[in-house]
From TrEMBL:
Organism field: Diploscapter pachys
A single cellular component GO annotation: cytoplasm
Annotated segments matching region Disordered: 219-263, 568-605
GO-annotated biological processes: glucose homeostasis; intracellular protein transport
Protein name, UniProt field: TUG ubiquitin-like domain-containing protein
Length: 605
């Protein structure tokens, strides 16, 4: 038997055994009895803070075995009203507001006036029965022992009413089940009373601790306030005494306070901008500890704040100019990707080299004028959809086809290695830069685009240049119908495509896509008839051949991932060749490297 773990409000855990047909409301009831809490005051939620529907069974709840649930206070009151819609076998329904604490028998009694017949008694040997969530509650005894709240009902629900014939054996089974549940509740009632007393005692102790803490805090604040007033009074008397003796009273202002702070040891504090070295403003390293201090470094005890402020301002302005140049260079699509190459080869960019690259790149991106793309020959054809009879005549797939073989495992391992490489060697590049790079690669790979519009049982095929704006697709459709003011919509897999000045690559429609054409003002049959009158008809085979010829100029697209090369594959500086004494060593090390893959008996000793 499976079970779940329920975390109580007092942070304790209880184990509740479950079966696939156990209601989640029964799990909450048993957990509350074990922990000493009222069932009507709590709900259940998962550890991901998702509230659970208590009317579901454990099988339909989607919870895994040995799941962990948490009890939370219920937001609605105990006497909350629920809206019940009772449906007869004939299909008629009546709706009433009923208290959640009412039993099913009381619910039927309230609906008797609405339906005008006896719903709680037996009629022609048939007992009343209520069906909710594919569970039947039959007979007067079972209807009286189950309440709406015990079934987890809340809000608005639909309950079906039927009449069923119960044998004496079935009635005895229902009676035995109810007696067993009552015995279980009586056994848990003892644990409930004991746990409830423990909870009350714990709450009392916690309340006393909070009151004592608040009282001690108030007393401490009162003592500190009295001490502060006493010091102020003492200072006031000393000041009056000085004035009476003709002495100048001592003033404590901000200037003296700052002098006291400057007289403190300088190694006790440090500001990266204010305590910048006077000789070299760029001497600070971003990798150095913030509160480090070199005792051997000579520095004035009371430095000039104006000098430090000017040096810090100059350093900040230099960094701002550097960052602005790098940002502009990344936004410029015509600039060389030097930064990307250095990151891929070396793993990082030194600050000095970054400054040199930023100075070499243009400070501002060049103004790009929009290029007008001339429309190409659409070669529009319309054809009827052909029925695919491949699945009709196909033989049943053997079971060996679904077995995982060695080739499948190698392919899976290769894909996993590629995923790991993508995650571990990805460079820290801006998302906008990667998207712009992939857009440029798509523009270079996908020169032409084929768009097919599904209109009823026919398909309209059009040819486009990938750089053309998608608004020309709507213009073509409107130019071939009589009502030019009609509104059309294009959908791709239930996603609405808005035609605009963006090209087909920017809307992910290249190199080919099939859209569903619909009109709000004109019916699909009318649109199809008008298109067939103005556009040549063809077969799907000819349309596929024309599409293949148009897409022949395209090349495969390889996305830009921005990976960093591993340490062993990065560019390594070659040793200097000026030292002739090390030629033999280099030759010997190169020879040994070449012989590493040879067998041991073949290597030269």
């Amino acid at each position: 038997m499976s079970g779940v773990t329920v975390i109580l409000p007092n942070a304790r855990r209880v184990q509740v055994k479950t079966t696939p047909s156990t209601l989640l409301s029964h799990i909450l009831s048993e957990a509350c009895l074990l922990g000493g809490f009222e069932v009507s005051a709590f709900d259940l939620q998962t550890q991901s803070r998702k509230k659970i529907d208590l009317s579901l069974s454990f099988r339909l709840s989607g919870l895994p075995n040995n799941a962990t649930l948490e009890m939370i206070p219920k937001l609605t009151a105990n006497n909350a009203q629920v809206e019940i819609a009772l449906q007869f076998p004939s299909g008629t329904r009546q709706i009433q507001q009923i208290a959640a604490s009412s039993s099913l028998f009381e619910m039927l009694t309230l609906f008797e006036k609405e339906f005008g017949e006896n719903l709680t008694g037996e009629v022609e040997g048939q007992s009343p029965c209520v069906v909710y969530m594919n569970r039947q509650y039959s007979g007067e005894l079972e209807l009286q022992s189950n309440t709406l709240s015990s079934l987890g009902i809340s809000g608005k629900v639909l309950i079906r009413f039927i009449r069923t014939t119960l044998t004496e054996e079935q009635k005895e089974r229902i009676r035995g089940k109810i007696e067993e549940e009552q015995k279980k509740k009586q056994a848990l009632a003892v644990q409930f009373e004991k746990a409830k007393l423990e909870n009350e005692e714990r709450e009392r102790i916690q309340r006393e601790m909070e009151e004592r803490f608040a009282r001690e805090l108030a007393e401490k604040e009162a003592v500190e306030e009295a001490k502060r007033k006493e010091e102020e009074e003492k200072w006031r008397r000393e000041r009056e005494a000085q004035i009476a003796n003709g002495q100048e009273p001592m003033e404590v202002d901000g200037a003296n306070h700052s002098n006291l702070q400057q007289s403190m040891p300088m190694h006790g504090r440090r500001d990266m901008l204010s305590d910048m070295p006077m000789s070299d403003p760029n001497a600070w390293s971003f990798d150095a500890p913030v509160f480090s201090f070199n005792p051997n470094q000579s520095r004035p005890i009371a430095p000039d704040p104006n000098a430090f402020n000017s040096a810090s301002d100059e350093h900040i302005s230099q960094l701002n100019r550097l960052l602005e140049q790098v940002d502009n260079s990344l936004q410029n699509p015509n600039s060389l990707d030097n930064l990307v190459d250095i990151v891929a080869n070396q793993g990082r960019i030194p600050l000095s080299q970054l400054a040199q690259i930023a100075e070499a790149l243009p400070a501002e991106p060049e103004s790009s004028h929009p290029v007008v793309i001339e429309p190409c020959d659409r070669k529009a054809i319309i054809f009827a959809k052909e029925k695919d009879g491949a699945f009709e005549s196909a033989e049943p797939v053997p079971d060996e086809f679904f077995e995982v073989k060695m080739e499948d495992l190698k392919s899976i391992q290769k894909d996993l290695r590629e995923d790991v490489r993508q995650q571990t060697q990805r460079a820290l590049l801006p998302k906008a830069f990667v998207q712009n790079k992939n857009r440029q690669l798509k523009m270079a790979a996908y020169k032409n685009t084929v768009i097919r519009l599904a209109v009823g049982e026919h398909v309209l095929q059009l040819l486009f240049d990938s750089a053309e704006p998608t608004s020309r697709l709507l213009d073509f459709v409107k130019s071939h119908v009589s009502n030019r003011q009609a509104k059309f919509s294009f959908k791709l897999a239930h996603i609405k495509i808005e035609t605009s000045e963006k090209n087909f690559i920017e809307l992910d429609l290249a190199p080919k896509a099939t859209l569903v054409l619909k009109s709000i003002d004109i019916g699909s049959e009318i649109v199809l008839n008008e298109l067939r009158e103005r556009i040549n008809s063809s077969t799907q085979t000819e349309a596929d051949q024309l599409s293949t010829e148009w897409l022949a100029v395209n090349t495969p697209f390889r996305p830009f991932t921005g990976l960093v090369l591993p340490e062993e594959s990065r560019q390594i500086k070659r040793p200097s060749t000026t030292d002739d004494g090390n030629d033999d060593k280099r030759h010997r090390s190169a020879h040994e490297t070449q012989n590493t893959n040879l067998p041991k008996w073949f290597k030269r000793q």
